[in-house]
Design a protein that fits this description.
- Keywords: Cytoplasm, DNA-binding, RNA-binding.
- One of its GO terms (biological process) is trans-translation-dependent protein tagging.
- Pfam families: SmpB.
- It is found in: Cytoplasm.
- The structure is a single chain.
- By secondary structure, the chain is an alpha+beta fold.
- It has one domain: Beta Barrel (Small Protein B, Chain: A).
- It is about 30% helix and about 35% strand.
- It is built from four helices and nine strands, in the order βαβαβββββαββα.
- The strands form two sheets. A seven-stranded antiparallel β-sheet has the order 1-8-9-2-7-5-4. It has a two-stranded antiparallel sheet with strand order 3-6.
- β8 and β9 form a beta hairpin.
- The longest helix is centred in the last third of the chain and has 21 residues.
- The radius of gyration is 18 Å and the shape is globular.
Length: about 150
């Protein structure tokens, strides 16, 4: 029997835009409540976090606008690509996040999604503050300077 190579060995899908748009204050690792074929699509690496954001409803944390592509080999029981998904955190972490979230200008941003050692899908979320335009320009300058130094070293 041939081995199935659809699934990647390690899953580490990052939200590259988040690091540019936000300054991270604190990071947390949360579990995800998934339905049906969503885990198979995650293992195939078909997830987009670029437009995703987190919010509180009834003292629970949810993520919205995270796109998990429908599983191509599913028959009729496929999942909805963009739906609200519940994030699993301890009560203590939820209380800490909700207190800081109510402060002005702070957001909860999904940073990356990965599969842990036990095969469970986990999401790293960060409490962040939006960067100003001059902060973004400084980041670009630093990145360019580092790239130039790396070129000179080679």
């Amino acid at each position: 029997m041939a081995k199935d190579n659809r699934f990647q060995k390690t899953i580490n899908i990052k939200n590259k835009k988040a690091g540019f748009e936000f300054e991270f204050i604190d990071k947390f690792t949360a579990g995800l409540v998934l339905k049906g074929t969503e885990i198979k699509s995650i293992r195939e690496g078909k997830v987009s976090l670029t437009e995703a954001f987190c919010f509180f409803r009834n003292n629970e944390l949810f993520i919205r606008q995270m796109h998990i592509a429908p599983y191509s080999f599913a028959a009729s029981y496929n999942h909805d690509a963009v739906r609200e998904r519940k994030l699993l955190l301890s009560k203590k972490e939820l209380d800490k996040l909700s207190r800081k979230f109510e402060e002005k200008g702070l957001s909860i941003i999904p940073v990356r999604i990965f599969i842990n050692d036990r095969g469970l899908a986990k999401m790293e979320i960060a409490l962040g503050k939006g960067k100003k335009l001059h902060d973004k320009r400084q980041d670009i300058k630093n990145k360019d300077a580092k790239r130039d130094l790396d070129r000179m070293a080679d």
